[in-house]
Design goal:
Layout lengths: L38 H19 L7 H8 L13 H26 L4 H18 L1 H7 L15 H5 L3 H17 L7 H21 L9 H10 L5
Helix pairs in contact: 1-2, 1-3, 1-5, 3-4, 3-5, 3-7, 4-5, 4-7, 4-8, 7-8, 8-9
Length: 233
């Protein structure tokens, strides 16, 4: 699934160590020291803080080492044992959100029962719902707020290349089931999965950035049915 490096929206990030103007001041919360052996908890709190800053500001520049440390209630140097720089924190946010997306889509498949058609529709509807619930995180996942490249701080090509692959596999799997059941007329599942994702992503993105537009109630079906080649049965 195309990911954070896929669009040109947003500038590459270089951490300046200062809080961006877009980030609202928030009282530092007192933080107790983690028990020995629970340093992983601090790592998760750092990721939580970065995600919260994105939710509140919609601005990649609001996520700096200093602003994240202030949100968590730690000194800035305490971040370094967990993340070498700001791009590494952003990557951790994106990885966690893609993992959440894959779990959410897989759960939707299981809840939808045995009908391949219902399973496909559930995946598509759940994808759109996921994007709508955390729009700034979603935009960050797909390059709308953060456009990294290998060489940005500690990032490597390996860090970026497989982001979103598990989520795309869920879509490919349900389309494959639909072909076997005669629910769609696809002759190239991989290509049609990509086309369907492009349609879903476009709709999800536009609903985030154009909330006042009078979207038709059935716009998801108008996107999903033709792109998935669903039969009328």
């Amino acid at each position: 699934m195309p990911t954070v490096g896929s669009t040109a929206e947003g500038d590459k990030v270089k951490d300046t160590g200062s809080v961006a103007q877009a980030a609202p001041a928030k009282q530092v919360r007192a933080r107790a020291r983690n028990p020995r052996g629970e340093g992983g908890r601090l790592r998760e709190e750092i990721i939580d803080a970065a995600a919260e800053l994105l939710d509140e500001t919609g601005d990649q520049h609001a996520v700096t080492l200093r602003s994240v440390a202030r949100r968590v209630g730690i000194a800035t140097p305490s971040i370094y044992p967990h993340f070498p720089d700001q791009p590494a924190i952003m990557l951790a946010v994106v990885r966690r959100e893609f993992a959440a997306l894959e779990r959410t889509l897989s759960a939707a498949v299981e809840r939808a029962g045995d009908s391949p058609r219902r399973r496909l529709l559930a995946v598509c509807e759940t994808y759109l719902d996921f994007a709508g619930r955390h729009p700034q995180r979603y935009r960050t996942m797909f390059g709308g707020l953060w456009t990294p490249a290998p060489g940005d701080g500690s990032l490597t090509e390996t860090d970026l290349v497989m982001l979103g692959a598990d989520s795309m596999l869920v879509l490919v799997d349900v389309l494959t089931e639909c072909v076997a059941a005669g629910a769609i007329t696809s002759t190239d599942v991989s290509a049609d999965a990509t086309a369907l994702w492009v349609g879903l992503h476009g709709l999800a993105h536009q609903r985030v950035v154009s909330p006042s537009f009078p979207w038709p109630e059935d716009i998801p079906e108008r996107v999903i049915i033709p792109l998935a080649h669903l039969t009328t049965i």
